[in-house]
Amino acid sequence: MVDKIPNEKRRHLRARVSLFADCSAQLDQPLLAEALVEDISAGGLRIQMAGEAHGDIFTMNSPVRGEILSDNPALQMQFAGKIAWRSAEKAQGSEILKLGIAFDEGVVLSEMLQSLKPARGAGS
């Protein structure tokens, strides 16, 4: 299932990863960290990490490199990008850091993401 909210300004269709399979991201830069992938599109992904301890490291526009890990091979891929937005939240007494990562141009999309890309000649 693909989420597309009316009047939303996103350029790419988004897929809720939980509907496909458990999926995580292994970030290699700026530091080795694991995160839960919440959703993903051809333009980037949204992840969440336990604890706000990494908040000082993951700053706006900082470069990020990593890999999407999943039992589903159609989701697996390496990526590079930058932090487009960040949000620190408290949920059930725990600190959570959420990050939006915009993929760099030239990132080779996974099979699942390629299927979300609009066909050439289709509307915007």
Summarize the structure.
Residues 8-105 form the PilZ domain. By secondary structure, the protein is mainly beta.
Task: Give the SSE map.
Layout: E1 2-3, E2 14-16, E3 23-29, E4 33-41, E5 44-50, E6 63-70, E7 77-91, E8 94-103, H1 111-116
Antiparallel strand pairs: 1-2, 2-4, 3-4, 3-6, 4-5, 5-8, 6-7, 7-8
Explain how this protein is built.
The protein has 124 residues and is mainly beta. The protein has one domain: predicted glycosyltransferase like domains (Thrombin, subunit H, Beta Barrel). It contains one helix and eight strands. A six-stranded antiparallel β-barrel has the order 3-4-5-8-7-6.
pLDDT below 50 for ≥5 consecutive residues: which ranges? 1-8
- Annotated CATH topology: Thrombin, subunit H
Largest sheet: 6 strands, antiparallel, barrel
Distance N terminus to C terminus?
20 Å
Which superfamily, in CATH terms, is the homologous superfamily? predicted glycosyltransferase like domains
CATH architecture: Beta Barrel
> What value does the average pLDDT take?
77
- Output the CATH class name: Mainly Beta
What distinguishing features does this structure have?
1 helix; 124 residues; Thrombin, subunit H; single chain; disordered N terminus; mainly beta
